[in-house]
Fold each of these.
Amino acid sequence: MAYLTVDIGGSPGINCRGFCEYCYFKNVRGTQPLGCRYCLPFKKGCDYCTRGVKEEYSGFKELKIIADEVLANLQTQRGDIERITISGGGDPSCYPRFTELIELLGSMEAPLHIGYTSGKGWDDPTVADLLIENGLSEISFTVFASDPALRRRYMHDPTPDASLKIVERLCETSDVYAAAVIIPGINDGDVLENTCEWLDASGAKGLILMRFANAAEQGLILGNGPVIQNQQVQSVESFRDIIARLSEKFDMKITGTPLWDPDIGSPFALVSEPDLIKKLPRVNRKATVISGTVAAPYIQKILSNCGSSVPVVPVTKEIACLITTDDLRTLNISTLENLVILPGRAFVFDPEAQKIVSGDGVEREVIRGPDMLTADAETSMGMTRDQVLALEMEGFSELIQTINRYGK
């Protein structure tokens, strides 16, 4: 089974008819390299943690370049193409030769998947027919709200009615996964209820709700907070309660990030599976596991049930994969074990991290843990509970084996 990804290039805010009011990439300026797992040991900063994390590209690729890349990728694939995914830093709906692109990919007679679009670039509802005729099977579509006026105001969509009609039409034939960043007082409450009712009636497959982030501890690691001045932000717990309530009320699948997926019980569905936890390796050495405030309690419970006596240490950052070097400077290093395990995807330069955690004169070793211990809502939306549990079993097995191999 072969999957083909078509990268159209582009940059947020530039190739999408301008930033949405709430956009994570809004206000980003030239930031210093963050450091990451891909950096060379002697140099902080690589393409991923300088340009890639900001999705900073020179612009949309020419159609000929995309066609040449598709042809080159096809020559390396074995078997039939099962799915073609369109992605990029810019919004596919704003690609200047979108019709030709879709007709080109549609000629390959494989299901099309658009990984993300705001729909702001589509002013004519007949675009939906173009997509359907060329084999669109799945699309992730940011709606924000079913109220056109709110969509115009906060997404800067010049033709919100057309965009919403496209959603309705695509729901008839394709798997539409809607998305909305929830801003308290703007598109929550009755507005959110109305949006869910509209999507559910239209036949949307699911809705992913994303909690609005406005500060560094919530994930704004590019020096760009606050995104909206003086805007209230929900607690993780209250946001989870909204997801749970809406999930019970509507037929379509509703998930939230950072929490949660009510159908699967993720992230960290393993917590409610003691029989599976018993199948994990036992922890027989000591190490400090660093995580974010959301994941730390779950990781602690699972590792404790596997025999660990060392507390999982959270930094002030909520999301573990967005931990940066500055977060490590807030730790009480005297409480750390000789082995410190960082999240695999944390934006930290490992030699710098080792210097920070050894700042009290005790030489400590820093290594990376697994890239993923669980599936967030954006990942679990298309997964079964068994698939999520298998992912978690694999991640925690790797983490425990790392502790037992390198710990004291």
Amino acid sequence: MIELVRPTVDLSDSWWEMVDDFAGETIHGSSYRAADREVLRVPDTFEEWVDWLGRMERPDAALPEGRVASTNRWVVRDGRVVGTIAVRHALTASLLVEGGHIGYAVSPAFRRQGIASAALGLGLGLAASRGIDPVLVTCDATNTASARTITSCGGILEDERDGVLRHWVRTGAPAQPIGPAPIETREARLVPITSEEAAAMRAGERRDGWAEGYPREDDLDAVGMLTSHPDAWSPRHIVRRSDGRAVGSIGCFGPPEAGVVEVGYGLVEQARGGGLMTDVLSGMVRSLEAAGLSVTAHTEPGNVASHRVLARLGFERADDPGDAGAEWFWARRPDARGVGDA
């Protein structure tokens, strides 16, 4: 029987047997570095390290630069540590290319026994419990065994980047109801714009991390409605994961009324046409609907690209198609949950 067990000093002997079996090979998903072996061999230091692995799971944990909160587990079969797995709670720009949400490894002595598939399946369950969907899992392009494992667990290959295969796996996790925290999507983070940033945008200041052309006129109109500290309905930067740059904004036209909320969104020109807006709007809509809200939008009649995005996500025109008004009104169909979700 395969289990994912919280790191514990009670399994230290078994842990070190696994480490020895790797013979210096990188142990993915372990946070262990061979250079630290002698230090961690000291029992008190090993205990501190195990405690640190547990603290990494907490969202308020103080982590080194470049690290994200993660759930660390040891893969155990019949009481013996045979591998490691880590479920990262968010993606950085580098993790989006290599590393992904889940890193895992199985001891060389226990490979080709179905342990990796079982462990990855359990790891996907942990990701689902954290509300992560979809999950990015990567492997070297030359690691055919790992690629087969990921595929067997539902992985869909997106592409290969610098010799790394990038697979996405749906977990079926429900979206988190919208709140003041960032919304995570596959391609972006939707980060609430602070009052200070809004003032800088209105003053025409440029900030590091803002793409050329950002903010647009529509972005300035959005932050013009921000009069206090950001909340769930405030405008958000669309921060592209691939380069960490803010390339647009998305938000609501005020709090919901009678259970209905209207969204507005847009990207700088160089960020359009690659599916980013579909991914971003999908994440926003899922969070709004998880809060029990119905979602609407307005578009200009000539904005064909926006029409396609809305239609792809299950929106339909809710006004009279023959109306020659200045804007078109869209509402998401009640049966559209899941349609086009990224």
Amino acid sequence: MARKTRRIVLAAPAAGLPTRATFRMEEAALAPLGDGAALVRTICCSVDPGVRARLSDGASYAPPLKPGEMIDAFCVGEVIESANPRFAAGDLVALGGGWAEHVVFPGRGYIQKIPHRRLPLSVWIGALGVPGMTAWFGLKRVAALEAGARVLVTSAAGPVGATAGQIAKAMGAARVVGVASGAEKADWLRSAGFDAVVDYRRTDDLGAALAAASDGGYDVLFDNVGNAMIDAALPLMRIGGRIVVSGQVADYNTPAAERPGLRNTAYFIAQRLRMEGLVVFDDLRSFPQAQEELSAMIEAGAVKTREVRYHGLEAAPQAFIDLFTDQSAFGRRIVEIGAEP
């Protein structure tokens, strides 16, 4: 008898903001394991704003999902059967999987054995997973951050932004300014080491507010929001400044033809600026060393983490929708699916 699992798939491509009708729960058979494969029981999974680009046609680093295909996600799980010599039953792993109670690692792709349990397992798909690694390599490789730099981080209360700001401080940044909305987020970011927080919802002149938060401008912009935010910051970039394009959360649900463009491009010439995007899997070989260093920072309290928890596979669609609609909660959104061993 074929083994089965429950999973959530794309029901129909999303036009604008995804809704519950965008997704469908189904029961699916688990195929026999081929050489190099492993069957993993999901303990928890993530919801990621970048997945929005795959729910409809458009430019993305990954092709769009077709109706009936599983929604992809990063997962922590327990290996329950293995045809891969690297993994044995009982191993705990973080991997690229999906919204499902079980996932099959096919023998290639993103997977790693979790080396210790000194931190909550969910951290391996948060600060020690793709969000944290995006922050780490965005600052170290793309921005080439140097001690004394002035850093601006947008969507600063999100898992990438919050980690980036704290890493920047740990690397010796002279000033770190975050952009976020609401007093609770601002208070938490200051407690995590941000020097100032600009509430974009409470200012009529974002450029002036950003300028007031850092005399002399910024050496690094770590952007998770999109073109409008970049355009507001361009006049404030110092000579030789670097702009890291990490995400575009404000633009994901806007048709391409309606997304704002960049007007202040003259500053690229006058200030000798560089702007570069990143796909963090380009740095995959360097993950273990970065995770070891960042893990030590978390254990020492130098980097704080924050989560919003959802319970049950059924909650994954709402957790994803909340990324774009719920301004009250913030932190890495984790969906609990199975029990920890």
Amino acid sequence: MLSILGLGCSLAKTELDNDFLHKEVGLALGPDWVKNRLGIYKRYTILSKDYIKDTKNADPRAAVALARSQGQTPVTLGAEAARRALEHAGVKPEQIGLLIANNDTPFETIPSTANLVAQELGIGSGPHFDANTSCSSFARHMQLLCEMEPSLPDYVLAVQTSAYTTRTDYTSRCMDGYIWGDGAAAQVLCARQPGRLKVTPVDFGTKPDGADDVVIDTCGHFKQKGAAVKEFALAKTCELYQAAAARCGLDLKAVYTIAHQNNFAMQSKILKTLDLPEERHLRNVQDQGNTAAAGVPSVLAQNLSRLKTGDRVVYAVVGSGLAWGAGVLEVL
């Protein structure tokens, strides 16, 4: 049985609230649009406010250089989340035998983010590697590790990290500045002893003919076919929730749910479509923006203390690829 022993998450240091984006950066869609379409009120960035205000991030290469100079990168975010997960689990870095990571916005083409995070933490040699499926990477990591269970070392560390604000267009009519926040999440896992959460992956899949629907060029801005992606994500998330509950014999209304942290308003629409109780839906997108693959596991890290033994959490996430995943976590 694969279980999660410890969870951690981290956010970038600089807060961007909607007043700043409207009044100083000049994003033009306005408070009513943000409230009704997104429901996101603040997010965090590894960039400086002056840089965003003055340049609108016209050249993402300059954003990467600035972030490096300030000592904040996807690797430092991932390492901080990992330190918190290790502390939560009571496991030392030298006990980790495998580190798996994702990073949608790497500052280095090579080496892997997994090895860079391992270096930052003082983790020794191991078959560390990256497995990146964008926003659905947490689901992919859980599935991969369950498949590898017979050969896993005693302790495994999974890390999901990104810094999308370095690839965000902040010009006036672009909506992406309202959406993205920089952050990371991490989990310490073990297949040999029970932990805080039992991991049961349920589904993972991709739709290659949608590969061009959500794109970040190597040195370019984030771009997506917003309407098409939103429609697909809404339908697929509902499908994933229902399939996961049916496969595990669960009543969706009696479990906790977590969706991809892309949009508060979209999540509310999913709850209404499936007639699910809002009080059992866990989320943080309203307070930290869309942190991509770190979204679902950061919600878990922030809400674990409110869950009790026997509770189930059904999660579903859809992202670039197009790729999706779902699973069930049982509180032990």
